[in-house]
Design goal:
The chain contains three helices and 35 strands. The protein has about 450 residues and is mainly beta.
Length: about 450
C-alpha cells in the first residue's frame, strides 16, 4: 500500500473521529434552559429545562376546580357568569336578617321585615302586649286566677295579678325537694302522709281480697292476693310484686271523691315494705287467715286499662305506714246457729249456718235492714229515726219503718201558729235530732 492510500485512510479516520466528537458534544449540551428563559409564558415556570404550569394559573378549564373555567387572558380560574350571580345572591341572603312578609314580637314591639332588615311597626303599651299569634297589640288572655298556685316541673308557680302568666315563686329543685300539690310547698322527697286503718275484712264476693276504710279521709285500703300465700314474709318491692299487672301479694289504697264515694280519684300502689302472713292462707282460706304489713310506702299510680300495668305519677302523692305500725286483716267473727243480723252496710239480712254468716235476704229498692218489733226486716227507715228535711221540718220514721212523718217544733206560747218562725236544731248525728229550739225574743 502506498503512502497516498495510507494518508487517505488517515484523513477518513480523523474525519470520523471529529464527527463522533461533534455528535457526543451536541448530546451533552442543554439548549432547553435557553429556550425556558426565552420561551416560557407568564403563566409558566421553568423546571428542569421545561416550561410547566405556574401555581395559581391555568392553561385549560381542566386545570380548574369547583366547575370554574380558565380565563385565557389572565390564565386564572374564574366562576361562570351565571354561577357568579348565584354566589352574589347567596351572599346577599346571608346578610339578610329576615325574609319578606315575616313578622315577630320583640320586647313588646311588633316588627316586620323590609329589605332583609327588621323594622318596628308598632310598640304595644301595657296592659296590651304583642300577640305572637296575630302580631297585634292585644290584652293578654287570662291563663289563671290571681294568686293561684301550682306545681310545674318541680317549681312552685303563682299567677300574676292580671292572670296573664305564671311566675316562679320557689324552685324546689334547688333544695332537692319536691313540690307538694295541694299545699304548694317544697317538701322532702320521702315525705308521705302517714295513715292507719281498722282491720280489713274479706270481700263478700272476691276471694283473696280484703277491704278497710278510712272514712275521715275518704280512703280504702285493699289487700289483694292472686296466688296461694302461706305463712311467711313477702317483700312488696320484689320483681314479682313491683307492678300491679303482675303482683301476687298486692297492697293498694283508693282515694274517693269526697262528694261521691263511688268515684275513685286516685290510686296508690306499693313501692316498698313487707307483708307477713301470720296464720292460714289469705288466698284460699280467708276466714281463717290473718296477717299484717310493715313499713309500707304506697305511691300514686295510673293503671293501663288494657294491660293493668301501673305507672307511678311524677310528683304524685304518697302514703306510708310508719315503722312499727301495721295493718291487719282478720277472719269474720263466729256466730250461733240460726242467729240473724243486719249486714254492716244494712243492705242484707244475714243468718248463721255452720258457724258462718251468710246472706239470707238482700234488701232492694233503696230499703235497709232494721229491727222492727224485735224482728229484722227490709224497710224504708229505722223506726223512730229522726232527720231534718229540706224545709227545716223534723221528720220521724214510723214504728213499722215504712216511711217518715213530718213533725214541727212547737213553742208552748204560740202553738205552731207563727207566721215568721226561727228554729235551731241540734243534731246528735247527721240524722238523729237531739234538741229543737224556738225563738223567744228578737226581730
Amino acid at each position: 500500500m502506498n503512502c497516498k492510500v495510507i494518508n487517505k485512510f488517515k484523513k477518513i479516520f480523523i474525519l470520523l473521529i471529529l464527527l463522533f466528537t461533534i455528535f457526543f458534544m451536541g448530546c451533552g449540551n442543554d439548549e432547553n434552559p435557553k429556550k425556558c428563559k426565552d420561551g416560557c409564558e407568564f403563566w409558566q415556570t421553568c423546571k428542569d429545562g421545561k416550561c410547566i404550569l405556574e401555581k395559581g394559573y391555568c392553561k385549560e378549564d381542566e386545570d380548574c376546580e369547583n366547575k370554574k373555567i380558565c380565563d385565557q387572558t389572565t390564565h386564572k380560574c374564574k366562576v361562570k357568569e351565571k354561577e357568579k350571580e348565584k354566589e352574589k345572591e347567596k351572599e346577599k341572603e346571608k346578610e339578610k336578617e329576615c325574609t319578606a312578609k315575616e313578622k315577630r314580637c320583640n320586647d313588646n314591639k311588633i316588627e316586620f321585615c323590609k329589605d332583609g332588615k327588621w323594622k318596628v311597626k308598632e310598640t304595644c303599651i301595657l296592659p296590651k302586649v304583642c300577640s305572637k299569634t296575630n302580631f297585634a297589640c292585644e290584652k293578654p288572655p287570662v291563663l289563671c286566677n290571681h294568686n293561684e298556685k301550682r306545681c310545674n316541673k318541680n317549681k312552685i308557680e303563682i299567677c300574676k295579678s292580671d292572670g296573664s302568666a305564671w311566675e316562679v315563686l320557689e324552685n324546689c329543685e334547688e333544695t332537692k325537694k319536691i313540690c307538694k300539690k295541694g299545699s304548694f310547698t317544697c317538701e322532702e322527697v320521702d315525705a308521705c302522709t302517714g295513715l292507719s286503718f281498722a282491720p280489713a275484712v274479706p270481700d263478700s264476693i272476691d276471694l283473696g281480697i280484703y277491704h278497710s276504710s278510712n272514712k275521715s279521709n275518704h280512703l280504702m285500703l285493699d289487700f289483694q292476693f292472686y296466688v296461694s300465700s302461706p305463712v311467711g314474709v313477702y317483700k312488696l318491692d320484689s320483681k314479682e310484686n313491683n307492678n300491679f299487672s303482675k303482683c301476687k301479694q298486692c297492697v293498694l289504697i283508693f282515694e274517693f271523691d269526697p262528694n261521691d264515694d263511688k268515684v275513685v280519684k286516685k290510686r296508690f300502689f306499693q313501692e316498698s315494705g313487707t307483708l307477713e302472713v301470720l296464720k292460714g292462707d289469705p288466698y284460699n282460706d280467708a276466714e281463717n287467715s290473718f296477717g299484717r304489713v310493715t313499713d309500707v310506702k304506697l305511691v300514686e299510680i295510673t293503671v293501663d286499662t288494657n294491660t293493668s300495668e301501673s305507672t307511678p305519677v311524677k310528683d304524685g302523692d304518697c302514703y306510708e305506714v310508719q315503722a312499727g305500725s301495721s295493718w291487719a286483716w282478720v277472719k269474720d267473727e263466729t256466730c250461733n246457729e240460726n242467729e240473724i243480723r243486719c249486714s254492716d252496710d244494712k243492705k242484707s239480712i244475714e243468718v248463721c249456718n255452720s258457724n258462718k254468716w251468710s246472706v239470707s235476704k238482700t234488701c232492694k229498692n233503696d230499703t235497709i235492714c232494721a229491727d222492727v218489733n224485735s224482728s229484722l226486716s227490709c224497710v224504708v227507715c229505722e223506726p223512730n229515726q229522726k232527720r231534718c228535711n229540706s224545709n227545716g221540718d223534723l221528720e220521724i220514721c214510723k214504728n213499722d219503718g215504712s216511711g217518715y212523718e213530718v213533725t214541727k217544733c212547737r213553742s208552748p206560747d204560740n202553738n205552731g201558729t207563727c207566721a215568721q218562725c226561727v228554729f235551731l236544731y241540734r243534731l246528735e248525728t247527721k240524722v238523729n235530732l237531739k234538741k229543737c229550739f224556738f225563738k223567744v225574743q228578737g226581730f
